[in-house]
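## retry 2 of 3
previous attempt timed out at serialization; input unchanged, resubmitting
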Amino acid sequence: MTYEIFSSLKSHIIRWPRHLLMAGGLCLLVACGGGGGGGGAGTSAGASTPPTITLTRSDSGGSVYPGNTAMLLPQFNYGSGTLRWIDSSGTSHTQPVVAGTAMSVNPSQTTTYTLSVTYQDPTTVRSSMLTGTAALTVTVVAPPSLATSLSLAISPSGTVTTGTSIQVTPTFTVPAGLSMTSSNILVNDNTASPIAATSGTPVVHTPTVNTTYKLQVCYTDTRVIPFVSSCESTNGTNTSVQVISGPTKLSTGGLLNVARSDFTTTALQNGLIMVAGGINSAGAVEKTVELYDPANNKWTRTGDMKTARRGHAATLLRDGRVLITGGYDGTAATSALNKAETFDPATGVWTNTTGTLIQARRWHTSTLLGNDKVLIVGGSVSSGSGTVVELFDPATGSFTATASLRIPRQGHTATLLPTGQVLVIGRNNSDATYLSVNSTNYESSRTTEIYSPTGTPAWTDGPVLAYGRDSHTATLLGGSNMLLVTGGYGGTNKAEVLSVTTAPTSLSTWVSAPDMSTSRALHTSTYVSSINKVLVIGGYNATSNMLTSTELFTPDTNTPANSSWSTIGNKELDLARAMHTSTLLNNGNVLVLGTYYTTTGTVSNTTEIWSP
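## retry succeeded, writing output
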């Protein structure tokens, strides 16, 4: 019994140390945080403080453009890391990260990224997980665009002739944050020879070939790192010119035997062109007459008029003769003539008319009526009333009075209408007269009057012009019953159209046509049936310079306002001319001769020929 008790006690004594060792080992395991080896990002072995957590950029750290890459560098010395953010659509994202390993992100808007690190609480041996964070915002900036601020204007544009200088004006603005490195005008995209450009400062360039101008501005965007350099340009729309050779000159016509101004030109029934009277280079008034033959381009003298004249009127009669009325003979004894004479092309002989003008006059109009009589209207009269209107009867050679104008007119036009009436347009309004039409007062140079020869001849008010005019032109377009009025003093470069299909009245309306390219007065306007256009030649411009240019009017009979003028490629006079004449030849060409007489020696004997 004693032995058994001793044996049991011995067994317990042996086991107690073993239990003590096991308990001590367990205590050591708990104190060491669950066992295992040393530290690292994923363990807290030996740590007594929270992990150090940072989120930085491993790239330059600047702003980025939408969708571009930014490199983020997460750092923490233990625990497990996750990157969190919300994108532009509001969607949340998470991504595990490894400490010390950079990762790329591509934000489309300014985005804040949060690094979350989960770790064991270092202050207790019990399992207790904590989270630490660090945040970083990546700023997103929109790429720059200068498109709305870049503009380039050129003048003139469209089609120009060789030697024309083009004024090119650039305009641009460089926003803050951008550093401009260059600004140039490129000619046909030639970057090797740019033209330096300053916003708002015009530069002048003379192209020799078809040219497109573009504005190019280059800059560096200093808002992002690394800096981004770029260039932006205008697209060249509306900044191109087509360069053509300068206008060709009209063909040279035969030389007049006598240089003259203030003469008359009449197309005869035999195809010849007759020029009568005028003032010569010596300042003397001429009675000489010449005939032009288009077949040989030559002028020959024919019989002289009975009386020297300038500022007279000439009308081709139905029987082929030419009636010459009035004018001025250059003497101090008179300021206007009442004499008239007729020319017979068959004999080359001039014959005084049986009667004389009732009213001596010059710079008047003379219009052949449908009844073969000639209507004499207006002009500068030597005495008496400028409202007196006369009819010449070729059968008797006499002049008789007919209904009078409402107001004296000079610098007017008189057009025979398809209705048989005569429409008188405009006047020199140096007397500042107003005329009442339909109970409204108008500047008299805007008024018109209509002569009706049938029944009891009478004048009635015609439609009022949009612009006052004198020394203008009025041209009836054959086959269209459209009357075109152009230019004149007061009318500048304006054109108006009137439908004369039916008899016009004071209530009829002039329709504005497109403007001519330049102001003109004392110019000519000729309807060329072969091309259905009106040819306008020369004249004085707004600064009283004689012109060499020509223009072609293309009518739109359905919508007159849609008619058009053409100047590009038109032929040009060799000699600037005003107060000249332009006469349509039977071959479709137009004969141009004469100039305005200013001082002795300025009158030319040259003639020119326009051809379609």
